[in-house]
Amino acid sequence: MNHQIPSPAQPRGRRRRMSVGLASFLAIASLLAIGVANASAAWSLQTTPNPHATLNELNDVSCLAGGECFSVGSVGSPSATTAQRWNGTEWKTQPTAALPTPPLGSTGHSLVSISCTSTTACTAVGYQTISGVKKALAERWDGASWKTQEVPGSKGPLQAVTCVSATDCLAVGQTGGSARWNGKEWSTSTAPFVFGTPEQGTLSDLSCTSASFCVAVGTYGQSSLIFSWNGSIWTSQTSPTGSLLGVSCTATYACTAVGVMSGPTGTLIPLITRWDGTKWTTQKAAYSAGAEFAGLSGVSCASQTVCYATGATRSGPNMETLAEVWNGTSWEVQSTPNPVGAVASFFRGVSCISITVCESVGVSRNGANVTTTLAERAS
C-alpha cells in the first residue's frame, strides 16, 4: 500500500495516506535533529485523468489478480474525493459518493486508502470536513457506484484500510482508533492504541493476512510505531527510530515496513524493517549516495522474497519518484520516469499483482504549480 505524501503544491500534515508525505518527512527531519527476474521489470508512465484545472492527487491504489486496479485521492481546493479505475487499457474517473460542499478555507474531503477484494467490492477510507473538523470517512464500491458508510464513534480521520474479504475490513485512524466492517456495519474500538496525544501519534498503514493477523505502523514523536492484531487485541511491538509509513505482510512471519529515518549525515534516508515472526530487523535500503533526501511511503510484497517499495528522492533541484525492489537478499533501486516539466513527483501508494507487475500512484507538480495525478506500472 500506502502511505502518503501531501500535495507538492500545498504541503500539509499527513495522512499516508492526512497524507504523509514531503511535509511529514520534513517535520520528521526536525524531530530526528527482486530476484534476478525482477531486475527486468521496467516502470512506465500512464495517462491519468485530472478533473480539476490545477489540483489533482492520488493517494493509494489496490490491484486485483485479474489486472484491474482502483485508486483514490482528492481534487480541488477545498478538496473533494476522487476515484479512478484501470481496466487493463486506460484509467477512467469514477464518481464518488456525494458529500456536503466544504466551506472555503477548510481542508475539504479526501480518500486516503483503498482495499479491493474483487471488482465489485472495494472499501476506501479517509476524512471529511464537517464544521471545520476532520471526521472519519468510509466509502464502498459495489460494482456499480460508490456509497458512503457511517463510522459511528470514530475519533477522527481514518488513515488506512485492509479487507481480507468482502465482508471483513479493518481500518486504523490518525488518533489511534480502529474500526471494523463486518459486511453490514462499521464498529469502532475505544482505545486499542496508547501512545500519547493525537498530535504526537499517527498510524499510517495497515496490512492483514487474515482476520486474526494484522500489522499497523505509524509514528510517535521520534519513534516509529508497530502494533500487531491477533483477532482480539492489539499488541505493541519494538520498533526502530524514524517514521513508518507503509507495511505489507504475506504471512504471519513475513512483513516488510517502510518509511524514513535520519541518516549518518543528518539527511533523511529510507527506513526498511522486516518481521520474521519473532523480531523486526532493519534492512539496508537502496538509494543514491548523493541524495539530499530519500524516503519510502508505500510497500507491496508479491511474495515472501519479492517486495516493491516506492516514494521519492532528491539529488538536485527537483523531487523525483523512487522505486526499489527486494529480491530476497538485498534492495535495488529501479529506474522510474518522471513527467516532462515536473519539478516535484512522488509516489504515495503501491500495489503488486505478481512478482513482476506492480502499480504505483501519487502526485506530480510542474513549474506552473499545476498538480496532476501520477500513475506508473512496472512490468
Largest sheet strand order: 1-28-27-26
Task: Let me know the largest β-sheet.
Answer: 4 strands, antiparallel
CATH homologous superfamily identity: YVTN repeat-like/Quinoprotein amine dehydrogenase
Helix content: under 10%
Q: What's the number of structural domains?
A: 1
Provide the fold topology.
Blueprint: H1 22-31, E1 43-45, E2 56-63, E3 69-75, E4 80-86, E5 91-94, E6 110-118, E7 121-130, E8 133-141, E9 146-149, E10 158-165, E11 168-173, E12 178-181, E13 186-188, E14 201-210, E15 213-220, E16 223-229, E17 234-236, E18 243-251, E19 254-262, E20 268-275, E21 280-283, E22 293-301, E23 307-314, E24 320-326, E25 331-334, E26 342-352, E27 358-366, E28 371-378
Antiparallel strand pairs: 1-28, 2-3, 3-4, 4-5, 6-7, 7-8, 8-9, 10-11, 11-12, 12-13, 14-15, 15-16, 16-17, 18-19, 19-20, 20-21, 22-23, 23-24, 24-25, 26-27, 27-28
Structure description:
By secondary structure, the chain is mostly beta strands. The chain has one domain: YVTN repeat-like/Quinoprotein amine dehydrogenase (Methylamine Dehydrogenase, Chain H). The chain has a four-stranded antiparallel sheet with strand order 1-28-27-26, with no helix packed on it. The longest helix has 10 residues.
Task: For the structure shown, list the relevant keywords.
single chain; 379 residues; mainly beta; Methylamine Dehydrogenase, Chain H; 4-stranded antiparallel sheet; 28 strands; 52% strand; globular
Q: In short, what is this structure?
A:
By secondary structure, the chain is mainly beta.
